[in-house]
Amino acid sequence: NIDKLLYTDLLPFDITGGPETREFLNRVADISTDFVEKTFDRGCKILDFHQPEQLKEVLDLEIPADPLPLDQLLHDCRDALKYQVKTGHPRFMNQLSCGLEVISLGGEWLTAAANINMFTYEIAPVFILMEQATMRHMRKVIGYKNGDSIMAPGGSVSNLYAALAARHKMFPEYKEKGLLALKGQLVMFTSVHSHYSLKGAAASMGLGTDNLVLVPVDDKGRMIPAELDRLIEEQKSKGNLPFFVCATAGTTVMGAFDPLNPIADICEKHKLWFHVDAAWGGGVLLSRNTKHKMAGVERSNSLTWNPHKLMGVLLQCSTVHFQEDGLLISCNQMCADYLFQQDKPYDVTYDTGDKVIQCGRHNDIFKFWLLWRSKGDSGFEKHIDHLFDMTAYLVEKLKTNNDKFELLNDEPELTNVCFWYVPYRLRTMKPGPERHKLLGEVQPILKGRMMTAGSLMIGYQPLDHHPNFFRNIISSQAVCRDDIDFMIVEMDRLGYD
Ligand code: ABU
């Protein structure tokens, strides 16, 4: 019995502690597997919601002065998962990253055991090669002939790497000379519905958010190319220096795809860097039924693609790809001698760590590579098709229940389905500002009821002139028609009044 043992009875402290160490880790694995089983059990709640002050009362979070026994640590592990939201639950539709792919989880367990930093081939030989092979495969899917890629800590950083590379391409001296190397005010362009990370990039790169020009969108949320062209001309006429255009393939709220070919034409005309933020939508490239949504993507200079979203890889897993090889290293390399010695006993171009502004790089590849190995390209095509089939079913159900639900996007381009739930008392109310206001107030109340019941989780937000509405995301393979039927009935049960 290991219950009363301490950490000093396990490896690496007690070198005779092999069986105790194995027992402890087996028990941790059992807790994890119990959580996985509960995650997929529709009879279990998605969450046991507590307000922060209540949660502080039920959890013992204090750091003790002296060691705690292993049974307390195992109890802590169980408690941590007990109060955690089950994001893999088939009725969790709250974020762009939903689901729990078991193969990917297996990879993540082993990644933790390997515990390596991805900066050099010297310490991560297998995972560096794995990353290169997988990134090469992704570039082929995108349509880049050669190029380069890197895995980054999230889509926002991936977008930042693209913008940094674009500036470096235009002003290579910026790296050494900073602002003095610039010949004027740099300006970036993206749509009003793009991800807020572009604002973050403009701020952190020293442009300022005023120099991120937001291009208007059409009624489906897609960038209007003629407006982009007009705004570029406007900035040029002011003497500013446009350098970077970011199209979005899958906007965060509406799931819209900006028209890539017309935007590529404009970038070519003005000689601007063309980046595609496909953090959310990139997965559509994996199915013959959906890849047309990103027609023209091969003309981009760079592309962000987060496999932890539509592809269901465990968090986090973000990638950024470049048409031109050599730019990333030229832009970011700092040549730290203690890591990136040039006289190592192998080809040091495999030391990818100097391509990025981070030093430490988490191993996000193993869980991703293993999942793709398990499915193959054909399995991922089925994966994407399933998400779109479920989305079509949800839209059909919302349309047949149009007394209770009003769709904002009745032909969604991705798996974002945006709608209002209409409670009984508003069903006969005349459209107008008062109903508009009440509708916006109802959605957060219903969200609160879902969380208290623990039966459903769907996100909401306002957008442009629209009051709060639900944005339902299907990005989990676990979602089936019964879950969608349940959702329709449950929302009406919780929100009817
Ligand atoms: N852009 C990060 C994901 C946001 C979301 O899940 O809605």
From TrEMBL:
Keywords: Decarboxylase, Lyase, Pyridoxal phosphate. One of its GO terms (molecular function) is glutamate decarboxylase activity. It comes from the Eukaryota. The keyword Lipid metabolism does not apply. GO terms for cellular component: cytoplasm. The modification N6-(pyridoxal phosphate)lysine is found at residue 309. The keyword Lyase applies. Its cofactor is pyridoxal 5'-phosphate. One of its GO terms (biological process) is gamma-aminobutyric acid biosynthetic process. SUPFAM superfamilies: PLP-dependent transferases. Homodimer. Belongs to the group II decarboxylase family. This is Glutamate decarboxylase.
